[in-house]
Design brief:
Distance between the termini: 48 Å
Number of domains: 2
Largest sheet: 4 strands, mixed
Oligomer: single chain
Order of helices and strands: HHHHHEEEE
C-alpha cells in the first residue's frame, strides 16, 4: 500500500476547515456574503494551499482543492434560508435609483398590511397579513386568519390556525 505525503493530509484538513467555517457563516449564522466576498474567501484559501498543492503535486490533493472550490460555489448559489434571496435582491438597490426601479427589484416582498380572503405572498412578508387563508415563504411580522402557512417554519409550526409567524429562520 502506498503512503500519502503529509502535504496531502494538510490540504485535506485545511479544505475541511475552510468549508466548515464558510458553512457555519452561511447556514448557521445566516450571513449572506456577496460574490466578491466568496471569491475573496476562495482566493484566500487558494493562497494558503498553493505551496502544499505545488509541493509534490498529486491527484488526491487536487481533488481536495476542487472539492473546496465546488463546496464554496454550492454554498454561494443555494438559498439556505429565507434571508438570502432578500439580501441578494437588496444588494441590487443602488443610490440614485428611482422608486419604480427599487419596487421592481423588491417586488417579491410584501411590506405593510394586507387584508384579503386569500393572501399568497411568494416571497417574504414584512408586516401583517389578515385573511381567511394566508400563505408566505417567510414572515417578519405575523399572519391572522382561519388557516395560516409559513413555509420556512419547522414542521409542526408551518400550518397554524388563528395566528402564525416565523418560528425558526
Amino acid at each position: 500500500m502506498k503512503t500519502l505525503h503529509p502535504s496531502v493530509l494538510t490540504v485535506a484538513v485545511v479544505s475541511v476547515i475552510a468549508v466548515a467555517f464558510a458553512s457555519f457563516l452561511e447556514i448557521g449564522a445566516a450571513v449572506c456574503a456577496s460574490a466578491t466576498i466568496f471569491a475573496g474567501y476562495g482566493l484566500f484559501w487558494t493562497v494558503i494551499l498553493l505551496p502544499f498543492l505545488l509541493r509534490r503535486p498529486s491527484v488526491v490533493k487536487s481533488g481536495f482543492y476542487a472539492l473546496l472550490i465546488l463546496s464554496l460555489v454550492i454554498l454561494y448559489f443555494i438559498p439556505w434560508n429565507s434571508r438570502k434571496p432578500f439580501l441578494r435582491d437588496l444588494e441590487k438597490v443602488r443610490i440614485g435609483m428611482t422608486m419604480p426601479e427599487v419596487e421592481t427589484i423588491m417586488d417579491g416582498y410584501m411590506k405593510g398590511i394586507s387584508v384579503s380572503a386569500f393572501n399568497h405572498v411568494q416571497g417574504d412578508v414584512f408586516g401583517i397579513c389578515i385573511g381567511i387563508f394566508n400563505w408566505a415563504y417567510a414572515v417578519r411580522g405575523f399572519q391572522l386568519g382561519v388557516l395560516n402557512h409559513v413555509k420556512s417554519n419547522p414542521k409542526g409550526l408551518r400550518w397554524l390556525p388563528i395566528f402564525n409567524t416565523s418560528f425558526g429562520s
